[in-house]
């Protein structure tokens, strides 16, 4: 049995979630566990820096960029 990477777990969660945006939002706050929270926090920080977005004011845009990076758009 292959152990899934954290990224695979996140992608599975997104695929199964009724709303991918809500899944990432919940993951940021630790709803899906610390390992996933840390993974999405790293993504959040990277998007915030790469796109020069404010973490509080632009959180919706940041999450949308994260989803684009994860699932390709």
As a whole number of angstroms, the C-alpha radius of gyration is 12 Å
Oligomeric grouping of the chains: single chain
Outline, from the CA principal axes? globular
Tell me what portion of residues adopts beta-strand conformation: under 5%
Mean of residue pLDDT values: 94
The number of domains is 1
List the total number of helices.
4
Helix content: 55-70%
Low-pLDDT runs of 5+ residues are: none
* β-strand number: 0
**H/E series:** HHHH
Describe the protein.
With 73 residues, this protein is mainly alpha-helical. It has one domain. Helices cover 68% and strands 0% of the residues. The chain has four helices and no strands. It has helices at 6-16, 20-28, 34-50, 59-71. It is globular. The model has no long low-confidence stretch (mean pLDDT 94).
For this entry, give a set of tags.
73 residues; 0% strand; single chain; 4 helices; mainly alpha
Which helices and strands occur, and which strands form pairs?
Blueprint: H1 6-16, H2 20-28, H3 34-50, H4 59-71
